[in-house]
Amino acid sequence: MSKTSNKGGQTLGSALRSSFTLGVMIVSLIVSWLIYKYVMGAPINFQGGNPAGAPLPGNYLAMIYKGGFIVPLLMTINLTLIIFVIERAISLTRAKGRGRLNVFVKNLQTLLDNDKIEDAITSCDKQRGSLANVMKAGLLRYRALQADAKLEKDQKILSLQKEFEEATALELPMLSRNLVILSTIASISVLCGLLGTVLGMIRAFGALAQAGAPDALALSTGISEALINTAFGIAGSLLAIIFYNFYSTQVDGFTYKIDEAGFSLVQSFAAASK
């Protein structure tokens, strides 16, 4: 495949990913608003059947509803987080391919030592992971360079290294895709929760400032709004940080294995070349 075709494919893939991300956010917002309005805000959850009134004792849906309009925004953020956590889990599982990577790399090394390039390429086709894709590109170049009598040994090694770098550059974006969304959620979730907390405290202090007896309903609503938004914001941020670090560690592990396997192949080529 030509470099122009690769760039065109990357551009199309980037557009599709952007559309997917936007679609996830829109759907999450719609679902969150519907749940907030018609499930949490259902009249049966409140005393007297009035959503503007006090929640029924022990009714947590009504309590969350009292968190105010920030709640569906936080639900949108958390739902988006869950979707992309699942998406990353599926993508990275596919990137691993079939079988254990350490065993796969060891088998490739054995095949290379015995100069069984075709068998190594077949093994990559069966493994179907990101590492296998990079190794297959290197092996195809390896085979072509073996038959090239024009280039010097150093030129062949540089060409093989360049092939690995290009193949790796095509695979790494897929491995780290959408991690920036998890890191962004880790920041904005707690900030949105803090905004809801501030609005709730404003409402609570406004109730206390009433002339005569404080408005108990407004006071309790303001406190509920503050605490519920704080809880939602912290929970979303906590989960985002955990999964971001978890997936980043997995990506780093993939990158290390790709670099290690590429270095091994180049060293094998250098040792076999005259």
Topology:
Elements: H1 3-40, H2 60-65, H3 70-96, H4 101-113, H5 117-127, H6 130-146, H7 153-176, H8 179-208, H9 216-272
Helix pairs in contact: 1-3, 3-8, 3-9, 4-5, 4-9, 5-6, 6-7, 6-9, 7-9, 8-9
Task: Explain what this protein looks like in three dimensions.
It contains nine helices and no strands. The chain has 274 residues and is mostly helical. It has one domain.
Structural class: mainly alpha
What is the tally of beta strands?
0
Please work out how many helical segments DSSP would assign: 9
Please tell me the overall pLDDT: 84
N→C terminal distance: 29 Å
Secondary-structure element string: HHHHHHHHH
Q: Uncertain regions: pLDDT < 50 for 5+ in a row?
A: 1-10
> What is the radius of gyration computed over CA atoms, rounded to a whole number of angstroms?
28 Å
Give the total of domains. 1
Please outline the major beta sheet. Answer: none
Coarse morphology: rod-shaped
Task: Kindly state the percentage of residues in helix.
Answer: over 70%
Strand residue percentage: under 5%
Task: Indicate the multimeric state.
Answer: single chain
Brief sketch in words of this structure:
By secondary structure, this protein is mainly alpha-helical. Helix content is 81%, strand content 0%. The protein has one domain (19-272).
Label this structure with key terms.
single chain; 274 residues; mainly alpha; 9 helices; 81% helix; 0% strand; rod-shaped
